[in-house]
User: Fold these one by one.
Assistant:
Number 1:
Amino acid sequence: MNKKIINVPLYVWIAFLLTSLIFVLFPQIDIFVSSLFYSKESGFFTNNTWYEPILYNSIQPVVTLAIILPMLVWLYNIAAKKDLYHVNRKVILYLLLIIAIGPGLIVNSTLKDHWGRARPAETILFGGTKEFTPAFIISDQGGYSFSCGHAAGAFFLIALALLAQKRRMLWMSLAVGYGIAISYIRIAAGGHFFSDTVVSFFIVYITTLIFYGLFFKEKTNEIS
């Protein structure tokens, strides 16, 4: 299935649509997954672990480096008239647009700030006072659960991995693995539901594919 819609393979759109429908029609999936990490006696278990704050606080420096380092390479290439790692203004614009539109505009500014979904730890189901609402359903609970900003920031590294000239699968695996690790600790800490992280993945991945296709048309067949 090689057909694409705005540079994104049709199967990716279908996967996003089906996954979203499943979360809306079967919201108990979110409740079940969160319950795996919760007990009435001690709450969400990763809140008492050493690695949760490390991973949680890693997002800002990691994403900052993912933007700053390519910009420094670009400036070096301009000053030295080099082509180190093939980083040029097109690469920089590609990265800036993805981080601004995917994690920035769609996940944080549109969904997270306006959907109102209560976080797991805030709901009555898990020791809080607010009502649970399914993914994609606008809520009056005043929460910031949908969707996951930390997961979106972590999955942004996919955009950087796609630029790799060598060992792209390795870098892609590391980027996706980091996103999964961040998603895990946010779910296990009661900060987000499973659907929050999955939706953030699809939003960032689709945004990345759209701009990758726009900026690097000659390479799009490599990731189909």
Note: The longest helix spans residues 51-80.
Number 2:
Amino acid sequence: MTTLPSSARPLAWRDLFAWRRVRFALLAALPFGLLMSLASETPLRIWLVRVATVALSAMLVYGVLERWPAVPPRRLARWVMQLLGIVGVIPLAAYVAYWATTGRFDFLRIEPEVVVGYAQLTFVGVLVAPWLALGAMVRQREAFAREQALAFQLERSELERQASDARLHLLQAQVAPHFLFNTLANVRALVKTGSPRAPELLDSLIDYLRAAVPRLDDSASTVAQELELVRAYLALMQMRMPDRLHYTLHADDAALALRCPPLSVLTLVENAVRHGIDPSEDGGAIAVTVQHLGTRCLLRVVDGGIGLQAAAPEAGLGTGLATLRERLRLAFGDGARLRITAQVPRGTCAEIEWPLDPQAA
């Protein structure tokens, strides 16, 4: 039989006399005090003092040897040391108990009944206490195993969360330059043509970057923040093609403060511009709506561009949607859904639905 690893904390008296241990020792001693008093003329209170003294002494030795020495002898297990210590202390504890209740150091010379009572108390203590100690060890081992299992589970959950956070930040790091470089390429094209709207375009770019840069490292965002970013982006794109792009943004008031996957709205809008509006000669309109639906939130981006059939299936819409789907899975598990459908007669509808509480995923 092995024993529990000793604690790394220094030995403290409050640990040795913890109430749960004292209570266990006194409750275990109580029936033996009652039984011994029935066969003796000694008052019950005296017997209770004697058995309590023996029980508490055994408890004290059990606790001390549980932690000292820090490293037990190689050939002597700690649990063996504890049992030997209990057996050794019981005669001494019984002697102290009789000395205290009789008031005499040489109480063994008083009467034969005192000698018999002392012998009975010592015998019962040596017989019962080691078994109670073994039972306590078993309970300690079970409690220790449960604590270790719980600690392992918590550590594993924490490591999984850290891995998910790291992967989520990596995905966001891939997305952020994607948006930024695409936008800079559009600005560069307009500046090279010598457009008189270049200063206004640069102002719009500054507004976009002012909204976008603080979001790059955010692990959480709100619908209001996402719409602010999208509004700046669409204003920038509208300056590039003022006659071909129109847009509307609408969100339920109750949805503005809700948690929203970072850059999710921008991902869908940017795909709508690149793969729907931009390739179309006539351009089109983009409508962004966010609805609060009880315990869930629905984001919809509808564009009047060339549509899926003319552009490509979802897998061909670039890495943005694939990255977004992975980020949704990391943030909400199976509780979030991304749907891409074709509109009639033309255009595309992209929807994200996610739970308000990530734990409900």
Note: Residues 1-9, 312-316 have pLDDT under 50 and may be disordered.
